[in-house]
C-alpha cells in the first residue's frame, strides 16, 4: 500500500492511497482458498471446486469484499500517522465504471483519496490559575413551609357549597372549546375540576369562572400563548362553552401527620425533610450550572485554537435548525427578535465555534485525567434518556440505543462532560459565596431558553412552559 500526502494545510489533510493490483490479487487468493473448502457448487464435491472456477463465479464479489475491507481499515492509516480525525474521513474513488471493473477483475491498482481534518494538539495549562465564585443558597425554614403547603394542597379536602364560585374554590365543569366556531381536538371534557387561582389552565380561563354557580352555563374567551406546545392552537383565540355542575369551597388545611399520610408519607416531619431535599437539589443544580458556566468561560478565554471546520459546520447546522424551528413555531421572524438573519447567523457561528473548541478541550482534559464513564453510569443515563419517551415507545427506543453505537455515544457525552467538570472543580480555585434566592436565580430565565418547552395536551390544560425568543438563547457550553 502506497500512501502519499497531497494536502497539509492547517487542520486539513488529504491522502492518496494506492493498493497495487498484485496486493489486491494476493488478498483475493486468500479469500478464494478459504472459500473453496466451504462453498457448495452443483457438479463438484465439497472442497474439490477448482480455484479458477471459483474466481469466475465469485471473483468480483470477493474482490468487492477486499475493497470494503481496505476502506474500513483506514483508521489504521491515521493511527500510524499519529493523527486523530475530527470526523469520519471522506473517501473518494473513481466513478468510471470501466476503471472500477478493472479493479474488481484484478487488472488495475485500487486507488482512492481520504480527506479529513485532524483534531488540533492542545497543550494543557495549570488549572489552579482559574478562579470562580460559587453561589450557594441555604434554604430557609419559611421557604420549606411555603413549599410544604403547596405540596400538601393536593391533599386538601373540599366541601360542596351553594352560591357563587370565588378564588380558591373548586369548580366542576363540562367544557367544549371552539376556534372560529369549530370544535378542536383535545378541547372538550366532562366533570373537569378546576381550582380557581392555581393557574393550571391557560391565562384568563380560571378568572372567568369566578362568580358562576352550579347550573350556570356561559361562554368564555381566551387566547392561547404564542409559544403554546400544540402548534395548531398557538396564538389562536378560542371560545369555551361552559356548564357548571358543582362548586366546592376548600376546607382548612393543616400540616400534620394525617395530611402527610394522605400523601403517602409516614409523618409531617418526613414531608418537610423530602421537600427540603427537593429544594436544596433544585438550587444546587442552579449553583452547579452557574459554576460550570464560569469554568467554561475561563477555559474559552484561556485556550484559543483553530476548530475543525466540519465539526463547526455540523454544530452550526444543529443550532440553526433548532433556532429556525422555534421561530417558526412561535410565528416570529428575526425582525421580531430585534435582529436580522445575517446577524443571527454570525452570532450562532461564533457559538458553534465556541462549543466545538470547548468540547475538544474537555475531551482532552478528561482523557489526560483518566476520566471514565462506568457501565453502571451509562445504564443509568440510558434509562433516564428512555424515560423521556412515552411508555409504549420505551422498548423500541431501548433497542435503537442498543443497536446504534452513535446514539449511545450521545448518551455518554454529557455524562463524561459532567465528570470532567467535577475533576476541574477539584483543581481550580473555588470561593463559595452565600446568596439569596433571587441572587442565585438572577439571569436563570435566560438559561432556560436553551430548554424546549414542555409538551402539553390541547387546552384548556396547563400552560406551556415559557420560552425565550430563539434568537436570544444563551449558550450553556454543551
UniProtKB/TrEMBL annotation:
Catalytic activity, reaction form: [protein]-peptidylproline (omega=180) = [protein]-peptidylproline (omega=0)
Stored Pfam families: FKBP_C, Trigger_C, Trigger_N
Bias-annotated ranges (Basic residues): 460-471
Recorded GO MF terms: peptidyl-prolyl cis-trans isomerase activity; protein folding chaperone; ribosome binding
Listed Basic and acidic residues bias regions: 449-459
Example of a GO cellular component annotation carried by this entry: cytoplasm
Domain PPIase FKBP-type: start-end pairs: 168-250
Compartments (UniProt record): Cytoplasm
Enzyme Commission number: 5.2.1.8
Keywords: Cell cycle, Cell division, Chaperone, Cytoplasm, Isomerase, Rotamase
GO term, biological process aspect, one: 'de novo' cotranslational protein folding
Source taxon at top rank: Bacteria
PROSITE patterns given in the database record: FKBP_PPIASE
Region feature (Disordered): 432-478
Family membership: Belongs to the FKBP-type PPIase family. Tig subfamily.
UniProt note: domains: Consists of 3 domains; the N-terminus binds the ribosome, the middle domain has PPIase activity, while the C-terminus has intrinsic chaperone activity on its own.
Role noted for this protein: Involved in protein export. Acts as a chaperone by maintaining the newly synthesized protein in an open conformation. Functions as a peptidyl-prolyl cis-trans isomerase.
HAMAP family: Trigger_factor_Tig
PANTHER family: TRIGGER FACTOR CHAPERONE AND PEPTIDYL-PROLYL CIS/TRANS ISOMERASE, TRIGGER FACTOR-LIKE PROTEIN TIG, CHLOROPLASTIC
Protein name: Trigger factor
Amino acid at each position: 500500500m502506497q500512501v502519499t500526502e497531497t494536502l497539509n494545510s492547517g487542520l486539513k489533510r488529504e491522502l492518496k492511497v494506492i493498493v497495487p493490483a498484485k496486493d489486491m490479487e494476493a488478498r483475493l487468493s486468500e479469500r478464494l482458498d478459504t472459500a473453496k473448502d466451504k462453498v457448495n457448487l452443483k457438479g463438484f464435491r465439497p472442497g474439490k471446486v477448482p480455484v479458477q472456477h471459483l474466481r469466475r463465479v465469485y471473483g468480483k464479489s470477493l474482490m468487492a469484499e477486499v475493497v470494503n475491507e481496505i476502506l474500513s481499515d483506514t483508521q489504521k492509516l491515521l493511527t500510524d500517522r499519529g493523527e486523530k480525525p475530527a470526523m469520519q474521513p471522506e473517501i473518494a474513488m473513481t466513478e468510471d465504471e470501466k476503471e472500477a471493473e478493472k479493479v474488481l477483475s484484478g487488472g488495475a491498482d485500487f486507488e482512492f483519496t481520504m480527506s479529513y481534518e485532524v483534531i488540533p494538539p492542545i497543550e494543557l495549562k495549570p488549572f489552579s490559575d482559574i478562579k470562580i465564585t460559587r453561589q450557594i443558597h441555604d434554604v430557609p425554614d419559611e421557604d420549606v413551609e411555603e413549599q410544604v403547603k403547596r405540596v400538601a394542597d393536593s391533599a386538601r379536602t373540599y366541601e360542596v357549597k351553594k352560591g357563587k364560585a370565588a378564588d380558591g374554590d373548586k369548580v366542576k365543569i363540562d367544557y367544549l372549546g371552539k376556534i372560529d366556531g369549530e370544535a378542536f381536538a383535545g378541547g372538550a371534557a366532562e366533570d373537569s375540576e378546576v381550582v380557581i387561582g392555581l393557574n393550571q389552565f391557560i391565562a384568563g380561563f380560571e378568572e372567568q369562572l369566578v362568580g358562576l354557580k352550579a347550573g350556570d352555563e356561559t361562554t368564555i374567551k381566551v387566547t392561547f400563548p404564542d409559544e403554546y406546545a400544540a402548534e395548531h392552537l398557538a396564538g389562536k383565540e378560542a371560545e369555551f362553552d361552559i356548564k357548571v355542575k358543582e362548586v366546592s369551597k376548600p376546607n382548612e388545611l393543616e400540616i400534620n401527620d394525617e395530611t402527610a399520610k394522605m400523601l403517602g408519607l409516614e409523618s409531617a416531619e418526613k414531608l418537610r425533610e423530602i421537600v427540603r431535599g427537593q429544594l436544596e437539589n433544585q438550587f444546587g443544580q442552579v449553583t452547579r450550572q452557574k459554576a460550570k458556566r464560569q469554568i467554561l468561560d475561563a477555559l474559552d478565554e484561556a485556550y484559543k485554537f483553530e476548530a475543525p471546520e466540519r465539526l463547526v459546520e455540523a454544530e452550526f447546522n444543529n443550532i440553526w435548525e433548532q433556532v429556525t424551528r422555534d421561530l417558526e413555531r412561535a410565528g416570529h421572524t428575526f425582525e421580531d427578535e430585534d435582529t436580522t438573519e445575517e446577524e443571527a447567523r454570525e452570532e450562532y457561528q461564533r457559538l458553534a465555534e465556541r462549543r466545538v473548541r470547548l468540547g475538544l478541550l474537555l475531551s482532552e482534559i478528561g482523557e489526560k485525567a483518566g476520566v471514565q464513564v462506568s457501565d453502571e453510569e451509562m445504564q443509568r443515563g440510558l434509562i433516564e434518556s428512555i424515560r423521556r419517551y412515552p411508555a409504549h415507545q420505551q422498548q423500541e427506543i431501548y433497542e435503537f440505543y442498543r443497536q446504534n453505537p452513535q446514539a449511545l455515544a450521545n448518551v455518554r457525552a454529557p455524562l463524561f462532560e459532567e465528570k470532567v467538570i467535577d475533576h476541574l472543580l477539584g483543581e481550580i480555585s473555588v470561593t463559595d459565596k452565600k446568596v439569596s434566592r433571587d441572587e442565585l436565580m438572577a439571569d436563570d430565565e435566560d438559561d432556560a431558553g436553551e430548554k424546549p418547552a414542555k409538551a402539553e395536551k390541547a387546552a384548556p390544560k396547563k400552560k406551556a412552559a415559557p420560552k425565550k425568543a430563539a434568537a436570544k438563547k444563551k449558550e450553556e457550553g454543551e
